[in-house]
């Protein structure tokens, strides 16, 4: 996390890597730490499911999300979402920019005043969270089929914990 000094004032910015994108907790932790914009370098194909994950991270955290990817056939699709799901009570697309597969510079311009206003008014993000209601998400042992086994037949460290 860091505060960026920009032309429109300070912007709290977080970063996560492409693998972090696969887990909602990564973006949530950054939002809870104060991130308004999350930057994500990426190194894999960005197909509809991964692009949808990233859109979801913006929506569920009311956070601007920008992801840069390698260019090339089957790659590309760097993307940014502003996290603003509704304007004047109407649903809207959060997409700010999506690149194709070609190399290029694709600016993502975020309306921070609109994002901050949206965060003050809407229910996602941190306003109505009830961590005690879902403590079982962090207080339980990882169970089959999600226990990962290493070459020695034992659990992979960090994957299975009480």
From TrEMBL:
Whether Glycoprotein counts among this entry's keywords is no
Q: PROSITE patterns from the entry?
A: CN_HYDROLASE
Recorded hits in CDD domains, A to Z, give:
nitrilase (cd07197)
The protein's GO terms of the molecular function aspect are:
hydrolase activity, acting on carbon-nitrogen (but not peptide) bonds, in linear amides
Taxonomically, the superkingdom here is Bacteria
Query: Could you list the residue ranges forming a coiled coil in this record?
Result: none
Q: Which UniProt keywords apply?
A: Hydrolase
**CN hydrolase domain ranges (all copies):** 1-112
Q: Where are the transmembrane segments?
A: none
Question: For this UniProt entry, which residues form the secretion signal?
Answer: none
Entry's SUPFAM superfamilies? Carbon-nitrogen hydrolase (SSF56317)
- InterPro entries under this entry? Aliph_Amidase/BUP (IPR050345), C-N_Hydrolase (IPR003010), C-N_Hydrolase_sf (IPR036526)
| Name of the protein described by the UniProt record | CN hydrolase domain-containing protein
Q: Which organism is it from?
A: Streptomyces violaceusniger
